[in-house]
What we know:
Blueprint: E1 9-14, H1 22-35, E2 39-44, H2 53-58, H3 64-67, E3 72-76, H4 77-80, H5 86-94, E4 101-104, E5 113-116, H6 118-132, E6 138-142, H7 148-163, E7 173-175, H8 180-193, E8 199-202, H9 205-217, E9 227-229, E10 246-248, H10 251-266, E11 274-277, E12 280-282, H11 301-311, H12 318-338, H13 342-359, H14 363-379, H15 387-431, H16 436-449, E13 455-468, E14 471-473, E15 477-485, E16 488-489, E17 497-499, H17 506-512, E18 517-525, E19 528-536, H18 545-572, H19 576-590, H20 601-617, E20 622-629, H21 632-639, H22 641-658, E21 664-667, E22 672-677, H23 682-699, E23 709-716, H24 724-741
Parallel strand pairs: 1-2, 1-3, 2-18, 3-4, 4-5, 5-11, 6-7, 6-8, 8-9
Antiparallel strand pairs: 10-12, 13-14, 13-15, 13-19, 15-16, 15-17, 18-19, 20-22, 20-23, 21-22
Amino acid sequence: MKDPKAPITIGVLTADLDTAYSQPVIAGVLERARSAGVRLAFLTGHFPGASHEFERQFNLVYRLSDAARCDGLLLIAATLQFHLTPEPLQRFFSTLPKVPAVSLGFASPHLPSVVIDNYGGFLSLMRHVLGVHGCRRVAMIAGPRGHYEGDERLRAWRDAHAEFGMVADESLVAWGNFTQPGGRAAMQDLLRRAGRFDAVVTGNDETALGAMAVALDHGLRVPDELIIAGFDDILAASRIGVALTTVSQPLRELGSVATGGLIDLIAGKQIPALTRVPTRLVVRQSCGCAARGAGATLVADAAVDAAMADLAPAPESEPIYRRAFTDFIQSFDEALHLGEIQPFLACLHRVAADTMRREGHLNPVQAMLLALQRRVLETRRMDASRWPQVARWLQQAQIELAVRLDLDRHNRQRESLEHSMAFRELLKARIATFDLQKLLLVLDEALPRLRVETCCILLYEGEGRINDLYDWYLPKRAQLLYAFINGEKRSELAGEVLDTGELLPEATWKLLGDTAALAVYPVFHGTEHFGLILFGVTPMTNSPWEQIRDEVSSALKASLIVSELQAARDMLSNDLSRAEEGNRALSKIAHLDELTGLLNRRGFMLEAQARADMLQREGLPYAVFFADMDGLKPINDQLGHAAGDEAIRRSAAVLRHGFRASDCIGRIGGDEFAIFTAHADPDALEAMRQRVYKLFEQAGDGLPYKLGCSLGFVIAKGDSPERLESLLSRADAVLYEEKRRRKGAVPVR
């Protein structure tokens, strides 16, 4: 029985924490939970029902909702449903435990749901286009068929026509996929088959930006010849040359309302079956309504009001925008008075630095600079002889801001890469010792560098397993292996055994506070689950958590293999049968080739594919080698299979020495090997191949046969979705050509 005085714990099921959509939603969830003294456990898997083995294994974390002592579940369906239609999403919901639950972003027929008022928001947009602008042929680029939010917006498009006594022309409907390329394709389709129309409304802003690009390519002036509007109010909507009329989604409020509703539900209160969070129509230039003209002088209040109408910030942000834009105007007037741009540039950098600290990007500053440029061009309150100078100033300001933005982006990418490389190198240095405690010391050093304040690792007592959505197993007990709480290592907490569903011992929860928020990830390697890794969540979520999870999983596997082997040796003197059982388990864990000590085919495919997936997420290229020994059959035929086995072992040793310690090497067939490397420079790869050839020549000295090997390699681009099996097949084809070049097998001496 739960202690009535104990804090409420809510499990939050989500497929991501870091996207432009999820970040404000998560901020709203955190804000409401903390104000109510509620704990949060974010169970962060991938999309339910995934077919790829890695994603299915990752989704074991969703099954924690069955074991975790959650008083309620918040299902962020807007992230879970991206790859799903409503039916499989509902099936997933039906597998969850029967505790109070709220669906966020999807109107479930079986659960209380909190959604954006997609229908009402899009209806207000259509009323504006039809009523205010008098458009009569309004095309619609809808979202994917069967997508809940897209269908609601399409329904509003149809109903708005009926409201104005019109019949919706279905020939003016094109289907998109919520992306700019999808918007471009749909717009081209409309222009090809639908003739002329007055306006285009789209399922979201990304689609609208793609449609606008096509309209401009066809020489259509927006809004004079064609009105375009979207939905979402993404940051780019106010920054493009023709600012986009759209509907703003209050995502932070969405997270807050859904969390508040779930807290009420847990308390036994009734909540509505469906709550629609109101949207806000944002009128900008793309429909022809944005305010134009700044009044008599540039510093008049009307200028600021006009800029605010163009920018259309959220009400809570408007005072910040208004102060910043007023500073822009005053510093620009000062620069005009002095004939010197420096006062304005100083203001620009000050506002940019403040915005970067507060929001993590410079998009609002870019939008304000564009608004200032419009105001200057429209007022023309100066002598014409000064216009060339002013134009140069405005151009210089744009360049300064772009340079600052590029520099910040470069610094963040460099910092992330340096942290990633340092973390991996630290782990590799410790992994070589196969000492689990030394591995944990690496985390003590790495976590502060990565600005991670809280990180805990649990190891299951037993093995977790998941084969598909309905076949899973989660050990009931776990041990706290490592605790780094609020920036401090807490060694005294390590070693405590607890129910897996508790996630952390109560003493650790108390250190975090009653309003703690944790992101929970599964620790696994291939198909074997070791435990869980937990991180503290803050409103500005932008973290290296998955990278840490990947590296810790690999490191734990290596450390646990050695630890388990030692335990098996100790058990041998007491219980031979138990030792044999342990060795069988170790054999399964290792995925090693018995002859060479390299990864076997299964082990290589699992390890290399996991690395490839990680590099693809980071947009980094990599390479795959296919290697085949020269002349193994004559060695076996003339000298016996023992000599052939020795030749294979020697070849494995050469490959291990010839490639880097960080590369993944496996024996995938009799005399065939595969190598995965993060190196992707063709010249460097060719140098590696030639080095391996020379090492084979040296290794064959003194043997009754000539030891040799041919290698072929291919490079995968960072954005390539190509699977490992396909890359190996292509590398094999390259190897065949390489063998022909080197004149095939090498004869026995």
